[in-house]
Amino acid sequence: MNKRQGYPTGVPCWVDTTQPDPEAAVEFYSGLFGWECQDVMPAGSPMKYYIARLGGGDVAAIGAIPERAPDQAMWNTYIWADDVDATVPAVVNAGGTVFAEPFDVMEFGRMAVFTDPEGAVFSVWQPGTHRGSEVVNEHGSLNFNTLNSRQLESARDFYGSVFGWSTLDVGGPTPMWTLPGYGDHLEEKVSPGIRASMAEMGAPAGFEDVVAAVDLIDPNDTTTPANWGATFAVDNADETAEIATQLGGKVVAPPFDLPWVRATVIADPQGAVFTASQFVPAA
Question: Looking at the chain, which residues constitute the CATH 3.10.180.10 domain(s)?
């Protein structure tokens, strides 16, 4: 299990879930993904923040709902930045909103919380000792971050302006978010030979630059707000859906097939929704 040592600016790097009952969420996700969780808050702190690990590497976190945040369980996306304070004017000038001004998180790093013009909440993370997800694309670890949006063109303008993202047509109903040059970083520091491997699998040219996905919210769904969602890699989507149900979760979308993956959408017992995705190579 290889451990990542950081991310370039503009790449999603971390996810956590905020929950009314963090301890109950620890029990659910530990049973589902095999996470080993440790509360990293100082002794006596009224807040809880459990770092989840696989094979000794950080994968995600489970925390209590902070003040001013919506009183509902959800998954949250963090995007890496070398200077979080410099991101503030970029977000505002692009039409976004500052939900929480930059603040220090002990020695772990510095962060701010924003909404894009459609209201989707995301955080920006400037690393200190905490350098994002160390284990990705393994069973029980982060596989993708996905923007669920109704206004693709507006999102394209906003994230392109703030983070330099472009889009890549992958033959589906929506494109993927790309960061030019990200493939160079992966080739050099993370996965040498990744370009050749993707070409062998038949991935579209430029797929190595993909940093996130985008899905369009069903036009008939008038209640779901624009949001950032998390997808976790699993070895078997059908088994994951079954185990989630046994642990008190709810299968929102039973396992279904898409190019390259078999996926299922699950709500944990407190209502946070996520996707579990099994890689299925083309025949």
Answer: 12-127, 142-279
Q: What pLDDT is attached to residue 192?
A: 87
The better pLDDT of the pair 198, 50 is held by 50
Mean pLDDT for all residues in the chain: 94
The whole-number average pLDDT for the span 170-190 is 89
Residues 64 and 22: their CA atoms lie apart, in Å, by: 6
The count of C-alpha atoms lying within 13 angstroms of the C-alpha of 173, restricted to the half-sphere facing its C-beta, is 9
CATH class belonging to 142-279 = alpha beta
Can you list the positions of beta strands (E) in the chain?
12-19, 36-39, 49-54, 57-64, 74-80, 97-105, 109-115, 121-127, 142-149, 166-168, 176-178, 210-216, 227-233, 250-258, 261-267, 273-279
Contact 211, 77 (CB under 8 A): no
pLDDT tier, 44 (very low <50, low <70, confident <90, very high otherwise): confident
Architecture of domain 12-127: Roll (3.10)
For 114-133, b where at least 16 C-beta lie within 10 A, e where not — what string?
A: bbbbbebbbbbbbbeebbbb
What SS3 state is found at 47?
coil
